[in-house]
């Protein structure tokens, strides 16, 4: 038989009795709860009760009513914003947040993240450096690059000084 005690792990009854002997506690006259109390640990069942009490509640932002039952209607959501019931491509009705001009917010190009190319990023010439040994060429970024050979004999482009 083994017993699981929170913060301590799973132990056999003999190992618990040995631990109590180390603490100079007579375990023959104690119940299991008293033993656990003497060892200053909480049994798992009580720990699970505490977890249930501490469970977080998720707040719904959209209206509480089902979108399928209120097709193409606008309603105020739990967060105070307006929502419209819209059917998606799979035929499922969902609440979409409505902009101030009564249009649902769609995933169009304006709402997507825009990638900004860093102009200062190094962009060497398209040509292979080995075809132009020790020569200067203009890169795609408009700066001059010189072809050089590294210690392994491989030609690469580097910014010209």
Number of structurally distinct domains:
3
Low-confidence stretches: none
In order across it, which strands form the biggest sheet? 3-4-5
By oligomeric state, this entry counts as single chain
In terms of DSSP E residues, the strand content is 15-25%
Shape verdict: flat
The count of DSSP E runs of length 2 or more, i.e. the number of strands, is 8
Largest sheet: 3 strands, antiparallel
Molecular structure report:
This protein is of the alpha+beta class. It has three domains: 2-53, no CATH class; 57-107, no CATH class; 129-159, no CATH class. It has three helices and eight strands; from the N terminus they run ββαααββββββ. The protein has helices at residues 13-22, 32-38, 44-53, and strands at residues 2-5, 9-12, 74-76, 82-87, 93-97, 136-138, 144-149, 155-159. The chain has a three-stranded antiparallel β-sheet with strand order 3-4-5, with no helix packed on it. Strand 1 and strand 2 form a beta hairpin. The radius of gyration is 35 Å and the shape is flat. The termini are far apart.
Element layout with pairings:
Layout: E1 2-5, E2 9-12, H1 13-22, H2 32-38, H3 44-53, E3 74-76, E4 82-87, E5 93-97, E6 136-138, E7 144-149, E8 155-159
Antiparallel strand pairs: 1-2, 3-4, 4-5, 6-7, 7-8
